[in-house]
Design brief:
By secondary structure, this protein is of the alpha+beta class. It has two domains: 258 residues, Rossmann fold; 118 residues, Nucleic acid-binding proteins (OB fold (Dihydrolipoamide Acetyltransferase, E2P), Beta Barrel), CATH 2.40.50.140. Helices cover 26% and strands 32% of the residues. Helix 4 crosses helix 5 and helix 4 runs parallel beside helix 6. Its EC number is 7.6.2.11.
Length: 397
């Protein structure tokens, strides 16, 4: 007996809005063994946000924002509170009106289409499960509403339960589940119909660290298996780096940088992105010479060194120098480019050793390194020398 034998409501007739989703569902169901993955890769839709403006009263929350998301892409909207990321997701979902601009799915405008007719899967921060329904019934509900036949529902629910490791909890109510299990049910309900687009609004924020890490792995694997377009909202840069094909960093209603996790981490466009994505050392320097993509800079203590240039607008004058903590090394005083430093703190974090330093310029610097089995942990007050490679530093506006 399939799990979907737990009745919710009788199936309804599919309408024009659910028909494309059902066609995609049947395409995957009909695919021969070994071809299902290829079929799944084709169900993700493209999303285009064109000059969208969003307002709350007189306040502009989104300022002519444009963004193109490729079919099957995992794109994260990353930014601090008030940056506009949740507003943008709500507009894509249809929960908020678009004051200006257009939102297109596979080239067709949807900004005037009601949310329930867009055919998107949605995962909320607070799970939003039906408390009187079992796990099976929660997952099956959108398929019942779309008019999917009972045999297909049973097969799909079994598949989702297996993928999300929820088989042992199939007949439990949400109140009998842990927070992590409830979130997996919410994800299962969102993907059950194989929607072309899945929207996730900070779905991991209510989970503890261990559950968050395990759920990250599950979401990443789901995306690889199913090929849906996923738009994921978070303020947690670790989640963004771990999950995304690309990340759009938002600030004050605008995208300040769009790129792969590696691009944002290694080549941030400005000091806002550098501070928000990963741990950063940002040192005040003076650009004294610019040569193509390199600049020679001087710190307040008079030490000079070279660094890459992140933006074409960088010229002579005050700037910020970015060097990531893991790129800083303790070296001997004779090492070319070595800077004298004073240890202000040293913390053993298991596999990581974090050392806080103060340079001769007065600037504070953090170093992170893998803990060696016989490495000496520097003591507070030690005088040391540090260095980094020119390729690991960037001058930012």
């Amino acid at each position: 007996m399939g799990y979907a034998d737990e009745s919710v409501e009788g199936p309804v007739e599919p309408d024009q809005e659910t028909e494309p989703v059902l066609q995609a569902l049947h395409t995957i169901e009909a695919a021969p063994r070994g071809a299902a993955g290829d079929a799944a890769l084709r169900i993700g839709s493209s999303l285009d946000v064109q000059d969208v403006v969003g307002r709350y009263g007189r306040a502009v929350i989104l300022d002519k924002l444009s963004l193109s998301i490729r079919p099957g892409e995992f794109l994260t909207l990353l930014g601090p509170s008030g940056s506009g990321k949740s507003t943008l997701l709500a507009m894509i979902a249809g929960f908020m009106p678009v004051d200006e601009g257009r939102i297109l799915v596979d080239g067709k405008p949807v900004q005037d289409v009601p949310a329930h007719k867009r055919g998107f899967g949605m995962v909320f921060q607070n799970y939003a499960l039906f408390p009187h329904m079992t796990v099976t019934q929660n997952i099956a509900f959108p398929m019942h509403m779309a008019g999917v036949d009972r045999l297909s529902i049973s097969r799909r629910v079994d598949e989702v339960l297996q993928i999300l490791r929820l088989g042992d909890h199939a007949h439990k109510l949400p109140t009998q589940l842990s927070g992590g299990q409830q979130q997996r049910v919410a994800i299962g309900r969102a993907i059950a119909l194989r929607p072309r687009v899945v929207l996730m609004d900070e779905p991991l924020s209510a989970l503890d660290r261990r559950l968050r890490e395990s759920t990250l792995v599950e979401i990443r694997e789901l995306h690889r298996q199913l090929g849906m377009t996923i738009v994921f909202v978070t303020h947690d840069q670790g989640e963004a780096l771990a999950l995304s094909d690309r990340i759009a960093v938002l600030d004050a209603g605008r995208i300040v940088q769009l790129g792969t996790p590696a691009q944002l981490y290694r080549e941030p466009a400005n000091h806002f992105v550098a501070k928000f994505v990963g741990e950063s050392n940002l040192l005040d320097v003076e650009v004294i010479e610019r040569r193509g993509e390199l600049a020679r800079v001087r710190d307040a203590a008079g030490f000079e060194f070279e660094a890459g240039v992140a933006t074409p607008s960088i010229g002579r004058g005050p700037a910020k120098l970015l060097v990531r903590p893991e790129r800083v090394s303790l070296v001997s005083p004779q090492t070319p480019g070595a800077l004298p430093a004073h240890v202000t703190d040293a913390v053993f974090l298991g596999e990581i050793l974090r050392v806080d330093l103060r340079l001769a310029s007065g600037a504070h610097l953090q170093m992170r390194t893998l803990d060696g089995a016989h490495a000496r942990v520097p003591s507070i007050g030690d005088e040391v020398h540090v260095a980094w490679a020119q390729a690991d530093t960037w001058v930012l506006a």
